Amino acid sequence: MSQGTHRIMKKVNILLAVIVSLLAVYLMLLGTNSAQKVQSVVLSILSPFQRTGSAVKQGIGAMGKGLKSLDQLEDDNRRLERENKELRATNQILRDMEVENNKLREALDYRERSIFRLVPAQLLTRDATTWWSSVTINRGFEDGVDDGSQGGSPMTVMTDGGVVGKVMTAGKNDAKVVLITDENCKIGAYVEGTREKGIVSGARVQEGGNPELQMNFLSRNADLKPGQKVYTQGVGAVFPPGLLIGKVKSFKSRELDGQAIIEPAVDFSTLADVFVIAGAK
After folding, report:
1. Which contiguous run of DSSP H or E holds residue 185?
2. Angle at the Cα of 244 (from 240 to 246), degrees rounded to 5?
3. 268 vs 67, 88, 131, 203, 232, CA distance in Å?
4. C-alpha to C-alpha distance for 188 and 233, rounded to whole angstroms
5. Higher-confidence position of 163 and 255
6. Residue-wise DSSP of 215-249
7. Which of 1-5, 236-240, 261-265 is most confident?
8. What is the DSSP letter of 99?
9. What is the DSSP track for 160-184?
10. Nearest CA to 131 among 189, 202, 200, 215?
């Protein structure tokens, strides 16, 4: 029973006790017959109140049993909040797994469609001091990866989105890859829909900025538009022709030539899975 109900019933009992006491005194002052008559009248008057008080007491008690305490409600609320957080976390994991599965499916499909023999690889390490310059992958000469030291040419590394870089040194089970965002990595390239050709290399990255490429030795009056795609030209033996490098971001005419800033096709900030081109199929 709640404290409020207990206080109400206590007051009712006190009032009834006072009334009964007063009647008892009054009956003692009366004769026997008169006392019996008065007692009968009093009992008939008090009987409905007694029954009503008992019913009210029972009703309030039953209602109190049906109500949850504040502590119980707080416990239920905390439990529901915890379950809600767990469901949100589970949904996020499922969404991440779906995205990863879609990426793997697209990569496998690209491998099947490619005209090249592709060796799948994953990034092992990435040095913070050379973040945009090089990475290490988990494939080496035992997997057929060549850095050119055996008389061949350094192999190209790419994703289904575009060119990543080239193998610089190959160990037994790993290899270091120089990225196209490195200033020393040079690629002969052309701009789609034009006769413009030039050399693509990494541009100096501003602190906190995303990597960009620069394409030099273009015509001073080259009519390049943002969004035009840039592909490997195939000059030399490293990068096969027709691989996507990126797209034109801007162009400026200089004293002797023209220069375009290229946005890479590959997102190097999230780079994880790559392919090494091991030759034609």
Report:
1. none
2. 135
3. 60, 29, 9, 14, 18
4. 5
5. 163
6. EEEE-TT----TT-EEEE---SSSSPTT-EEEEEE
7. 261-265
8. H
9. SSSEEEEEEEE-SS-EEEEETTSTT
10. 202
N- to C-terminal Cα distance for the chain? 84
Q: Which tens digit of pLDDT belongs to each residue from 6-56?
A: 565 666 566 666 565 665 555 555 555 555 555 555 555 555 545 555 554
Coil/strand/helix, residue 30:
coil
Query: What CA–CA distance (Å, rounded) separates 155 from 147?
Result: 6
Tokens of 258: 């023209």
Two structure tokens written together for 178: 């120089």
Comparing C-alpha atoms, which of 153, 163, 183, 185 is closest to residue 271?
163
pTM (2 decimals)? Answer: 0.64
Q: Give the pair of three-digit tokens for residue 206.
A: 């501003």
CA gyration radius for the chain?
44
Q: What does DSSP say about strands 156-158 and 134-137: parallel, antiparallel, or unpaired?
A: unpaired
Distance CA 80, CA 72 (A): 12
pLDDT tens track for 156-197: 999 999 999 999 999 999 999 999 999 999 999 999 999 999
CA-to-CA distance for 92 and 86, rounded, in angstroms? 10
Question: Mean pLDDT, the chain, as a whole number?
Answer: 81
Instruction: Determine the pLDDT at residue 56.
Output: 47
The neighbour count for residue 85, using CB atoms within 10 Å, is 10
- Statement: residue 5 has pLDDT above 50: yes
